Amino acid sequence: MCDQQVPSEPAVGLRERRRRETMREIADAALLLFESQGVRATTVDDIAEQAGVAQRTFFRYAPTKEHAVFSDDRGWETAIAVTLARTAEGVPLAAALEQGWLAEVTAFDAKPRTEHERALRLRRLALNEPDLLAITLARDETHVSELAEAAAQISGNDLLTSRCIVALVSTLVRQAFDEWARRAVNGDEVSVQSLYLEARTGLTAVLDGWDIAPS
To answer: Are residue 122 and residue 207 in the same domain, yes or no?
Structure first.
């Protein structure tokens, strides 16, 4: 499945570029304040002031202060757009989904060190703040459900099969990112893509030898 060319993200206009900049400013402000004074002690007004935006602008990008730190997470948008486009072209769902995630993984691997350090900060914060961890898990579940339903309509697969495929590939990607983070903390630089391929190779070997015939 990985021999397919991963499409690059299309160019964006000035308005979209400014929207993304604002999302990032809000997310960076929330991350900084959550790290320095904790989630509970931080208010929406604190984040808006730190980001240099009005409160009404803040709520256009995040429903709560907890969601603000994730407001510039566009990785899922890239993954779902590529997946649905490839599925509509007739690519099998598993291959289309992998292409979608590889587009995001490739983009992440190419980011500068400062962006990787930011990802580690966000991960560390989420693991230590129950409210943020709950949002992270809920977002993952919502993403899987949304993509499975959309893909089922396009691919013709039944919903259960689509959910299983989406959950499987998404879990592999998440495990690859988690392993990347663990190694990065220890100073071991490795690409997320290589870890994903390693995980998929191992899982494929297990599934190939898995006797699932009913007894």
So the answer is: yes
